[in-house]
Structure formats: C-alpha cells, structure tokens
Specification:
Structural class: alpha+beta
CATH architecture of the largest domain: Alpha/alpha barrel
Helix content: 40-55%
Number of strands: 19
Mean pLDDT: 95
Largest sheet: 5 strands, mixed
Length: 735
C-alpha cells in the first residue's frame, strides 16, 4: 500500500466513524479531530483501535510490517496487551502518547501492536522468551525482534524515562540503546536472537509420554494446597491474590472422596472471603480479576468473562457440597451480571470490562465506577438507609482506596443488625432493597470500557456455567441463555465453515485455536445434559475429532495450541499448565472421559489416557500447575456415575416432571457423573443409540424415575427424592 493509498483509506475510515466519534488520544486539533492516525484504525479489534491515534506509527501483526522491517533494515518493537489491561493503558499514556518516544519508534523501528486475546499463539511464543529472559511475565509485554521475528530483548511494562517510578533506565533509554545495538552489533544481535530461539525450542520440546499418572498425585496436590493456604483469608498466601491460583474445585473433590474436613474448610474459606471482599462487586454481582492485597479487599477492577464463568461453577459445586444458600446466591448474582451487562445481541458474551472508568474531567481513573463516598450514599439512599449501607459495606469518610470506599461485607449480619438496632431478617430485607437502588444509581455513571470481542473459548466457559446452573438450580432462564449462546457458537460449523477464534461485530474472525474447540466441546456436553438433544453430543464429538486431527502431538500425546494451518511462529506452544483459563490439555482429558462415559466408545478413553500420560512428568513435578487435569484424574479414580431420569413428558433437565428428583442435585455434590433426562420414547430412539446405557430405562407407575448406574449396572430405580439422594450418597462412599 502506498502512502497516498494509506492516507485515503485512513481518511475514509475516520469519516466513517461519524460526528460523535471521540478519538482516544490527548493529541487533538482545535476542532477535536485527531492529530495522528495510524494503520490500526483500519482494524476491528478493540485493543488495536485504542491505539489508532497514538503518534506511534503502529502496524498490526502481519507480513506488511515484516517486509518493511526487512526493506528498511530495522528491528521490530512488538507490544502485546489487551483492551482492559490497566498497565497497558498506563504505558500507552506515558510512552506511546509521548511524541519524543514515538519519534524514536518511528525513526528506528517498525512498531507492531498485538492483542494477546486475538493472537494467543503470538503472545505465548514471546511470553516464553520474556519469562526466560527476565524470570517473570505479564502485560503489557514489550519485545524487540529481528525482521525474522526472532527476539533479542524484552520485558513487560517500562516507565517512560529514567527516574520515573524509581527506575534507573526508562523506555526511552532502552529504545535508544537497542536501536544502537542493532545498528552497530548486527551480527551479534542476530546470533543472540537465533541462540535464544534455539534454546527456547529445545526447552519447550514436548516430553515423551510417561506412565499413567498415579492417584496418589491427588493427595500430593491437596497437601501442596494446604502449604499454600492462607488460614486467615483463604486462597494462597500473600498478594496479589488471584481466584484461579487456589484449587477450590480440586479440594471439594478431595473432601468428597476422603472425608477430608481440612480440604473442605480451605475451599469454603476461600470462596467465603472472596465473596465478602472488594474482589466481588457487592452491588452488581460478578468478580474482578484479582486482589492487589492479601485481604481480597482492593481489586484490580477489570472484570473478565472467563473468571466469572469459572467462579460460577466453583460456587455451584460448593453450594451442592454444603447446602449453603449464600453460595448459590453468589452464583446467581454473577450469572445475572453476565446476562445484564455482558450479553451481546447474538446471545453470545463480550470478553471483559476495563479497570479504569471515565472521570467527569475526561481522565480515566481506576475503580471510579465501583467506589463510593458517604455523601454519595446519602444522595442515593437518604440518611437512614445510607446509615445502614455505610455500616454494612464499610464505607468511611477517608475511604480505603484513593479517598473513596470499595464496598465489602466482612462482618456478620447479626453483629451489624445489633449495632443498628435491627432484627437480622429486617436488615437482610433492607440490604436487598439498598443494593437494587445503588445499582440503579450506579447505572447512570459512565461505565468502564467494555471489550466487545466475543472469544469462543471464553464463551464456552460461560455456556457451561449457565447450563450447570440451570441443571442444578432449575432456573429456566439460565438454560435458555446457555442454549442460545451455544447455538450461535456452533452456527459456523453447522453451516459448513470452520470454527473461528473470535466474533467482532458479529463477524467471524481468525481460525479457532485448540482451546476454542475443546472448551466448546465441553460446553456442548453440558448443554446436552441439560436438553437431552443428541445434536449437541454429535457436535461435541465432531469438535473433539477435529482437535485430534488438527492439534495432536502424534509423537508424544496431548495437543498444541495452534494447528499446522495457523501461522508458524518461532515456538509452537503445547500448554503444560493451567492459567486463569484451564489449558487445552486439561480440558481435553476430562472431555474425552465424559465422552467415553456417555457413549462407551473406547477410543475416547484412549485419547484421555494418552493426553494424561503426555503430562506425566509435569504432573509429578508440579501437580498444582495442572490442577484442572487433576479433575480428570479424580474422575478416573472415583468411578463415574451414570444418572438417568425418565420423565413422562418434556425434554431434558428443565422438564417440570424431573424437578423433584433433580432438586436433589442442589444439595448433593456428584462431580464425576453424566446425566440424561428424557422420555421413554427418546431413550428408545436416536438418544438411546447415542447413549447406549440409557436404553431400556422406563418409568415406574407413570412417575419420573431415577436410575443411578456405574458402567451399566444400576441400583433399583426410584421415584422418591429421598431414595435418590441415598443412592447418590452411597455411590459417593463406594457402596
């Protein structure tokens, strides 16, 4: 593209934004139009568009940028982040909006901006380098590359200049130093970069498959979690505190399997303290990404779709294990937040909201949307209810975050009621009304930026959360939302197209990665359990067959993140740890096992076993790094149950006839089970052919009837909820 063509396209793109468009930059002309516009304006990705008016001449990742670097004989500066990343915004404001720094980048580099959520393969390849070079990683990620895409220097966030934030060298210094190094020591830089790549490829080479992991690893992981546990506040010791860093679901299974009271206590303490702290949005529901302190009080205010979906499942399982109504309420409030604020017109879900909120003066201020002052409470509620809210949510004049108060609920209801001279039930009723009113007032504030990308993998987690909530809680609206989102996600496949990685403004973009396929397959199994519609099971099998075809490590077992059809990078990641989102290999292992349980097809179990054998070494060395794969090991160890509920009419778990029996699941934790709810006619038709162990199951005396089975051997059928509960309890205890 010539410079003239680029200018024409950028001008047209800017005009197409319309008169209400507000450029995200401090560099504006007197009429409000942006002084600078770069190629990122031509992109649809929300994160790239945030940087479209920086004075930096950004390029998206692609051959145009690499060809220019070769033609100009320049190094590449690669910046990787995402649209709701607070420190990405800080580095943008401090450095990428700085004209002196931009001039250095424009004169001596080809600058590339990448959204880690859109290109997880690029992010993974260069994060491996940064972690090896510096010992840590994070975002924004900053990497210096040769035109052959080989890294020779890198880090994460850099302050703009020496002295800023106490730094000895700033980003400006590093840009100058590395540009001079590339110019004067070219051969050495290239040799260094090639050496880095060679070593990283050697270190990242997959291990050969080992023996099947022993069940003793479950005890080892539980003991390691105990050593990590914060006895005062739950979760892992220290700060920051991430919800994903402590294996709550694994501990709930340990408690169920062995009667381990300490494992149960650690899991419940973690969930209770997260729910009480500022990590949880006490007004609108849902969880922020992590707590910056050890008390779960001060969050990093961004909200990620995947965190909330995964936490819903954890709270649902804990509610089943304990019967504690408050845990189920947390799951409901979180799902209601997602349905209210994150649902797209398509039925799918947006990816995240920002940590920063727009202030009245136009600045972006972290957490402003979520925090309160006593005066704001009085204005919203009046004096009497403001007194109640102030006492319950810990609001003070001095505040606990930059002069404002993050709401938290660290006191017992009875204690606060006594202070306020109220009965506990009256206080609880008033607090429900207060939350609704504060939510209404807050809805008129300027909200944080929302990233409107629809990421397939994260949506799959949300479908799972909705479907499980519908099954366990009997809430039809959650089931309807799960089916609607699932149908939108699989629509490309059913139309004969490939699974995309993201949807942007309803358009399919990118080729799906392995976690998109695997997490969606897992979600469709949850929808199948909810609906008993065989098409969902068939879709799940189709997705997993494509995973085996396109992503498998045929020499060693397990799965790469990218397929051969994807761009070939300096490294091809084979995920060997669970991060905030469970890895493709952990989810694949359990999904194969669930498919085996539904269909009795031995090939599915073989795939699961080979996947787990592929990670025998990392599981033995650091089992908690693969805590979601240990859920698959627990499944194998625990003799999964097959549950059939035969109903007179209606389809699936939302059949009103099934509810008296399925209500038992609200108070019974049966994590290693598959469930089918259907009529006799369905079980004798296509559904029974797909799930052969359901065949021959009939109602007793015309009433909904439950069967609890193991590998086709069933206990006596029952229509009594109490008997069904006893059978599930007996199965848990191995009787």
């Amino acid at each position: 593209m010539t410079d003239a063509e680029l200018r024409t396209r950028l001008q047209a793109a800017l005009q197409a934004k319309g008169p209400d468009y507000v450029p995200r930059t401090r560099h504006k002309n007197p009429d409000g139009t942006p002084r600078f516009t770069n190629r990122l304006l031509l992109e649809s990705n929300p994160y790239l568009l945030q940087h479209a008016h920086n004075p930096v001449n950004w390029f998206p990742w692609g051959e145009e940028a690499f060809a220019l670097a070769r033609a100009l004989d320049r190094p590449i500066f690669l910046s990787v982040g995402y649209s709701t990343c607070h420190w990405c915004h800080v580095m943008e404001e401090e450095s990428f909006e700085d004209e002196e720094i931009a001039q250095i980048l424009n004169d001596h580099y080809v600058a590339i901006k990448v959204d880690r959520e859109e290109r997880p393969d690029v992010d993974a390849a260069y994060m491996t380098f940064v972690q090896a070079l510096t010992g840590s990683g994070g975002w924004p990620m900053s990497v210096w590359l040769t035109s052959a895409r080989e890294p020779f220097f890198g880090g994460t966030y850099f302050p703009p200049r020496a002295g800023a934030r106490g730094s000895r060298r700033g980003f400006l210094d590093l840009l100058r130093e590395q540009a001079e190094r590339f110019k004067s020591e070219r051969t050495g830089v290239v040799r260094t970069a090639q050496g880095f790549v060679g070593r990283l490829q050697a270190v990242s080479a997959p291990d050969p498959a080992g023996d099947f992991p022993p069940a003793a690893l479950l005890s080892t992981a539980r003991d390691q979690a105990g050593m990590r546990f914060d006895p005062e506040r739950g979760g892992s010791r220290g700060a920051p505190k991430f919800p994903s860093s402590f294996p709550v679901r694994l501990l709930l299974r340990a408690a169920r399997r062995t009667g381990d009271a300490d494992a149960r206590r650690m899991a419940l303490s973690t969930l209770e303290h997260m729910r009480q702290g500022g990590l949880y949005d006490q007004i609108g529901g849902g969880f922020h990404r992590y707590s910056t302190d050890a008390q779960w009080l001060v969050p990093h205010f961004e909200k990620m779709l995947y965190d909330n979906a995964l936490l819903v499942v954890a709270y649902l399982e804990a509610a089943q294990a304990t019967g504690d109504r408050r845990l189920a309420v947390t799951a409901r409030e979180t799902l209601d937040y997602l349905l209210r604020e994150m649902k797209a017109p398509s039925g799918m879900f947006y990816s995240a909201t920002d940590a920063d909120s727009p202030a009245p003066d136009g600045r972006r201020e972290e957490g402003l949307f979520f925090t309160w002052t006593p005066a704001e409470l009085r204005s919203a509620l009046g004096e009497d209810d403001a007194r109640v809210a102030t006492a319950w949510f810990g609001v003070t004049t001095s505040g606990n975050f930059e002069g404002r108060s993050i709401l938290f609920t660290g006191q017992r209801l009875e204690a606060v009621a006594q202070k306020l001279s109220l009965e506990p039930h009256d206080l609880e009723r008033r607090l429900g009304d207060i939350r609704k009113r504060l939510l209404e007032v807050r809805s008129h504030r300027r909200p944080p930026l929302r990233d409107d990308k629809v990421i397939v993998a994260w949506n799959a987690l949300t479908v799972s959360a909705l479907a499980r909530a519908a099954l366990v809680l009997g809430e039809q609206r959650y089931g309807e939302a799960a089916v609607e989102a699932a149908a939108a996600l699989v629509a490309p496949l059913r139309a004969g197209r490939a699974l995309p990685h993201v949807f942007v403004d309803g358009r399919e973009q990118g080729s799906g990665f392995a976690d998109d396929y695997v997490l969606l397959a897992s979600a469709l199994l949850d929808v199948f359990e909810l609906t008993a519609e065989p098409t969902w099971l068939a879709d799940a099998i189709r997705l997993m067959d494509e995973v085996e075809h396109a992503f498998a490590d045929r020499a060693n077992g397990g799965y790469f993140l990218s397929a051969e059809r994807h761009e070939q990078l300096v490294l091809r990641e084979k995920p060997d740890h669970d991060g905030p989102v469970p890895s493709v290999n952990s989810v694949a292992a359990l999904t194969w096992l669930r498919l085996d349980a539904f269909t009795d097809e031995e090939r599915f179990r073989r795939h699961a076993e080979l996947t787990m054998r592929a990670f025998a070494r990392p599981l033995a060395q650091r089992p908690l790094a693969l805590d979601h794969m240990l859920l698959a090991l627990d499944w194998v160890t625990a003799r999964p149950q097959e549950i059939v509920v035969v109903v007179p009419e209606g389809r699936g778990a939302l059949s009103s006839a099934a509810r008296p029996l399925l209500d038992v699941l609200q108070h019974t934790f049966v994590p290693n089970a598959v469930v089918v709810v259907a009529t006799e006619a369905e079980l004798s038709g296509a559904l029974g052919q797909r799930v052969p162990w359901t065949q021959g199951k009939v109602m007793r005396d015309g009433q909904a009837t439950a069967y609890v089975c193991e590998r086709g051997t069933c206990k006596l059928p029952t229509s009594e909820p109490e008997s069904f509960a006893r059978q599930l309890a007996d199965a848990r205890q191995g009787r």
